[in-house]
Amino acid sequence: xxxxxxxxxxxxxxxxxxxxxxxxxxxxxxxxxxxxxxxxxxxxxxxxxxxxxxxxxxxxxxxxxxxxxxxxxxxxxxxxxxxxxxxxxxxxxxxxxxxxxxxxxxxxxxxxxxxxxxxxxxxxxxxxxxxxxxxxxxxxxxxxxxxxxxxxxxxxxxxxxxxxxxxxxxxxxxxxxxxxxxxxxxxxxxxxxxxxxxxxxxxxxxxxxxxxxxxxxxxxxxxxxxxxxxxxxxxxxxxxxxxxxxxxxxxxxxxxxxxxxxxxxxxxxxxxxxxxxxxxxxxxxxxxxxxxxxxxxxxxxxxxxxxxxxxxxxxxxxxxxxxxxxxxxxxxxxxxxxxxxxxxxxxxxxxxxxxxx
Length: 357
Fold this sequence. Notes:
Layout: E1 5-10, E2 13-18, H1 29-43, E3 50-55, E4 60-62, H2 67-76, H3 83-100, E5 106-110, E6 113-115, H4 117-120, E7 129-133, E8 138-140, H5 154-157, H6 165-172, H7 178-183, E9 189-190, H8 196-205, H9 211-218, H10 226-229, H11 231-238, H12 243-251, H13 256-265, H14 270-283, H15 288-305, H16 307-317, H17 335-341
Parallel strand pairs: 2-3, 3-5, 4-6, 5-7, 6-8, 7-9
Antiparallel strand pairs: 1-2
Helix pairs in contact: 1-3, 2-16, 3-15, 6-14, 14-17
């Protein structure tokens, strides 16, 4: 279904290879459909004991959704986006749900860039997931940088990160390392590049039924985590209860961490930072399906609002790095604006993800 997705079965393992290196494996609708089709075909296939999903290159596992496509399609009918945008998010979030509840070991080799939609196809549920990180892993949920919010189940997995780490990662969109990903509970095993040949042989030669145990035996310590070192400060500031309160708290701290964080926050969409805080807060009380349904309605509101279109224009299309956020400042974001983004778009019986459980 997609020239950028290659699938095969060997030695009891179903293999999915993302092969769109020039776009850092950014997901298109055809790619989402091809991955979904493979997972559905293998779900009840006795010849497939485990699934491995990886990239054809070490530069990126997956950098997210195809934001150029979002921009072009969203501008066509800016009030609601195009039917293809609607289909993309409905089918992508359905795939995220399928991955989370996959009944067989689901092994994601998160080499290189792993961001946004890449996290959505790697963060399987606890009964299935085997998330491998390497020296090259650069992980983030950077959506606020383009006027979006951490979707693809981000409201679920970020809200369950230790302490206030989820708020920090979602509101700032900062990039973290392999050691940080392990510390935050967003990865399971570290495989050093020095041992890459051994890892490749393990993934190729080990029967699917024994793959999880073999990966666990191969894993090594990832070293010190910068996130762990900053955890106390993150909890103190990002547990403040709102984005304005977080900023006020950071301003009382003269540390390098606080000053760098303030500089990052100053570049993000004020509205979407506040929406992200509310999203993670709400996500803590919802199951996976509930989080995805919330995000699906929110993404429609986001395209109606136009913030993501402006963010992609500034960061990707025109590359002037000067997005004109609306509102322009954090002080101008009201609670009414934030709550309006969470208003239902469809009746429950008509929600495009109503069948998820």
